[in-house]
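A.,

Following up on our hallway conversation. Structure tokens first:
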């Protein structure tokens, strides 16, 4: 199996990123921890398979932590997410950050499994946070998510580097 190519996001990646994030989240805005982020303005990485973009990761630096704002791969089982996370963690370490953070929703059992396999631990659960964001910040957040589970809560995970 051919290894994926990972490189930092570039300006010419923006149309694909805009389309991919809008398709999956209703817009290019992502809400996490009560803040809205325009993903088209964030740094990150893109994964390529045979010169075709197949994954992206966008992040934001805060105090002593790198926060993963979005991680999205169009292929499963090829290590795309793991490779993108590896590059993000390496960037955080190289820039003196000591912690990684990521937030997901209560319905996203695949993400919870994935991050815990990468040695992230649950650090906070914000009960009803998504319900509140839907009312105040981003009305287009879906009511139901994976497996028909109602999307209500935010689950934050972290990893000490």
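Then the amino acids I'd put at each of the 161 positions:
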């Amino acid at each position: 199996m051919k290894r994926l190519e990972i490189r930092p996001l570039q300006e010419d990646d923006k149309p694909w990123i805009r389309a991919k994030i809008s398709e999956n989240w209703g817009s290019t805005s992502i809400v996490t921890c009560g803040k809205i982020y325009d993903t088209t303005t964030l740094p990150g990485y893109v994964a390529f398979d045979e010169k075709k973009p197949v994954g992206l990761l966008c992040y934001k630096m805060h105090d002593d932590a790198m926060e993963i704002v979005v991680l999205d791969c169009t292929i499963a089982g090829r290590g795309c997410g793991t490779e993108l996370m590896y590059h993000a963690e390496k960037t955080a370490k190289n820039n003196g950050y000591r912690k990684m953070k990521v937030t997901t929703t209560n319905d996203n059992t695949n993400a919870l499994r994935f991050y815990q396999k990468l040695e992230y631990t649950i650090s906070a659960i914000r009960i009803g946070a998504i319900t509140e964001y839907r009312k105040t910040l981003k009305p287009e957040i879906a009511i139901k998510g994976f497996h028909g589970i109602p999307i209500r809560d935010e689950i934050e995970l972290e990893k000490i580097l």
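The chain has one domain: 5-160. Curious whether your intuition agrees with the design.

B.
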